[in-house]
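note to self: dont lose this again. the chain is below, predicted strucutre after it. 329 aa total, dont forget to put it in the shared folder this time
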Amino acid sequence: MIFPYLAGFLSPLRAPMTYLLLIINVVVFAATLNDYNKSDSQLDQFLDDDTFINTQGSAFAVMIQKEPSRFSETLRSLAKSAIQHEKLSLEALGGLAMRNNDFMSRAQTFNFGGDDIAIAHWRKRLKDFMKVQDANPSYRWGLSRVHGGWMNWFTYQFAHAGFSHLFWNMIFLMIFGCFVESQLGSSFVAIGYIVGGLAGAWSYSVLSGISYSPLVGASGAVSGLIGLVTVAWWRREHLPFLYMLIPSREYMGIKLLPSWLLGLVFLLPDLSHYLSSTKEVGSVAYSAHIGGALFGALIAFGVTSGVLPKKERAPQIVTPKLFEQKEAA
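---
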């Protein structure tokens, strides 16, 4: 395993902007946690309702077959199987329908035919589902077709869909934010994060399309900082990475390596996943990561070309206590 260490986790005095962004993310998560858990459990009740999901899958299949040119080959293939009452295809379409703009915007008025009583009952349930959905913080703070105002382009960067989602985004914010702030200053962290997040949302809207399912999380914004570090240090001094071959002190340490490894480890997989995934079934917004990273790269070109000012400070290697005894020996 190899992991970027860069400048380590600096103190709040040395990286105030990074800690400010961290605090905002954590406060938003804590403030919305109860509402998120409550509405999420209610949404799960709809998703666990086989009758609701299967009826919705059948309805979506009918819409796709009536207007095939409006939908992708993936959805047309699922619809063909669902019409033949293939259970897995029905369930898949029932779930995907909740993310599809065409379906959700016309579900209450489209002529599906079939059992009118079943359709009427499903439509009532769908209205209830959308009310619960609107109460979910991910939908209120996230960027979606329903909540697509200019504020949502900012607020989605501070909303997270769970503790694990928040935790890993904040780990990378601390790693790259502390390093950028120590080398270039607080303004670069703020611009890299906020405008990188905006660039991520824009690329997501262009490449993947804003759907009814909300875009949330700081990963697009953090990708802006990763792209900045990857390109700005491309031909400069090597950066500190932690490595661990096996969990033993003799096989762990810090190694100076080129910054292009960051692109190889963090950014290239996003591009690969985006190119190989189908947007209807993907749950990770790889296109937002790509947009954020490209904006960070643009900042880096401004720094390296002298257009943007920078601090003349070499990367500082602060040896973690875990390795102090090994190096002293």
